[in-house]
């Protein structure tokens, strides 16, 4: 138990108590923990599990009430960096979606994290891409190569970060929304951009 969480006046109070009468101990525990609105049954439980030692019962109560800290990884979507974002795309055409993401937590990501497809329309065969382990505050760009559906219309798929070893999902949901149209220009825009750049820092697979 973190004793800094217990008021020094409270410690002084129960250190001066010497009664062994169980009814008195129950009342004293309720009085000392008045702010917690402890009922008689609960007071008896904590006293009994500590052999009716008042100080030990109070320590157990605070240990029980202290929340367990879980350091789950955190991710924040910074921006959609897709070349040609918002343009429509022809049916059955390959294209790439890209995003800048950040480790928005206080702990480094574990090894083996990935961006995982979790729902909506599956666009192509790729359902996950590996992502490097980022330290707190670090930003990276991730990209996934996809293929548009065979029919015209508006389609969505849903992606999230995942720890592969535990299958725990975390961070902001990433939505992919595209409009499929026979006159779409997204693929051409991306091809022209690729020709104009000699290198890419994308993290991609598939």
Automatic annotation (TrEMBL):
Residues 82-180 form the Nbr1 FW domain. GO terms for cellular component: phagophore assembly site. InterPro entries: C6orf106_UBA-like, Ig-like_fold, Nbr1_FW, UBA-like_sf. One of its GO terms (molecular function) is ubiquitin binding. One of its GO terms (biological process) is macroautophagy. This is Protein ILRUN. The gene is LOC117214201.
């Amino acid at each position: 138990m973190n004793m800094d969480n217990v008021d020094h006046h409270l410690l002084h109070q129960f250190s001066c108590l010497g009664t062994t009468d169980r009814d008195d101990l129950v009342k004293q525990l309720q009085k000392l923990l008045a702010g917690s609105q402890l009922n008689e049954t609960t007071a008896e439980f904590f006293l009994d599990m500590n052999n009716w030692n008042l100080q030990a019962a109070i320590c157990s109560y605070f240990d029980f009430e202290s929340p367990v800290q879980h350091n789950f990884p955190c991710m924040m979507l910074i921006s959609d960096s897709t070349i040609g974002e918002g343009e429509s795309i022809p049916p059955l055409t390959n294209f790439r979606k890209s995003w800048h993401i950040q480790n928005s937590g206080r702990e480094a990501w574990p090894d083996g994290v990935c961006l995982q497809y979790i729902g909506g329309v599956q666009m192509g065969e790729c359902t996950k891409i590996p992502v490097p382990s980022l330290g707190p505050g670090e930003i990276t760009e991730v990209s996934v190569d996809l293929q548009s559906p065979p029919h015209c219309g508006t389609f969505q798929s849903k992606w999230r970060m995942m720890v592969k070893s535990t299958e725990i999902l975390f961070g902001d949901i990433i939505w992919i929304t595209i409009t499929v149209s026979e006159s779409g220009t997204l693929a051409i825009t991306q091809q022209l951009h690729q020709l104009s750049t000699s290198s890419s820092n994308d993290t991609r697979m598939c």
